[in-house]
Design a protein that fits this description.
- The chain is an alpha/beta fold and 241 residues long.
- It has 2 domains: 133 residues, ATPase, nucleotide binding domain (Nucleotidyltransferase, domain 5); 75 residues, 2-Layer Sandwich (Nucleotidyltransferase, domain 5), CATH 3.30.420.40.
- Helix content is 32%, strand content 25%.
- It contains 8 helices and 11 strands.
- The strands form 2 sheets. Strands 6, 7, 8, 9, 10 and 11 form a 6-stranded mixed beta sheet that branches.
- The termini are far apart.
- The relative contact order is 0.19.
């Protein structure tokens, strides 16, 4: 059967998802998908969701060609849980692990032809994780810079042409964005991170031989965690003393 079989995991936000896909952008098939946003952490439902989905689709672990994981940026806790699950499955099943930047997968929700797009996730502390993309002649979005953590008002200073904002971060700070003449906010219900898009990108990346070492693989946080910030502050204070 054509197309690689990919188990994909997306836990970068509170709304997590898992999927089974076969093929890439030109021969894609969705076999199964499970998405939920319950009042509990990803750790309490992720493996159960994966097992239920695998059984429902009639897929066995040894049939998987690769595990695709959303690497971040996003929720620190969610990314750690997703990565730990993906690494465990990859090592137990002897299956390659493929990492996909969260915003690269998110931009696939909206790719208007010849448009500038900016994918946004809420980074809390009045900031967003942001990354700009531009669609090529085929309508496929290409990243034009690296993801950053930035205040919404500062992000607007970098925008001088029409741009489509995609993702939960755009709606979290819509009061900042909505009055700017260059900004158009993509529909909330479609502009959400999905494991399906992680799976499509993971299939292509796996064919290119771009896999991760399941032992050393780590999330892409972009911003230091609160614990790291506090530790650095404590060490600085100790040095000054």
């Amino acid at each position: 059967m054509d197309g690689l079989l990919i188990l994909a995991i997306e836990t970068a936000t509170g709304c997590g998802s898992v999927s089974l896909t076969r093929g890439g952008r030109n021969d894609f098939r969705l076999l199964a998908e499970c998405t939920s946003q319950p009042d509990m952490t990803h750790s309490r439902r992720l493996l159960g969701s994966i097992q239920w989905m695998m059984q429902s689709a009639g897929v066995h672990w040894n049939e998987l060609d690769a595990i695709g994981i959303s690497m971040g940026p996003g929720s620190f806790t969610g990314l750690r849980i997703g990565m730990a699950a993906a690494k465990s499955i990859a090592m137990a099943a002897g299956t390659p692990l493929v990492g996909i930047p969260t915003l690269d997968a998110l931009v696939m929700c909206a790719a208007p032809e010849n448009s500038l797009l900016c994918c946004l996730l809420d980074a809390r502390k009045q900031e967003v994780y942001a990354c700009f993309y531009r669609t090529d002649e085929t309508g496929w979005p290409t990243r034009i810079d690296a993801p950053v953590t930035i205040r919404p008002s500062d992000l607007l200073l970098n925008i001088n042409e029409s741009v489509v904002l995609v993702g939960p971060g755009a709606h979290a700070y819509s009061d900042v964005f909505q009055n700017n003449e260059h900004v158009h906010i993509f529909s909330d219900f479609r502009g959400q991170p999905r494991a399906v898009n992680v799976g499509i990108l993971a299939e292509e990346k796996h064919r290119q031989g771009k896999t991760l070492d399941p032992v050393s693989a780590a999330p892409m946080y972009v911003r230091a965690s609160e614990a790291e910030v506090n530790l650095k502050k404590k060490m600085t204070e100790q040095i000054r003393q």
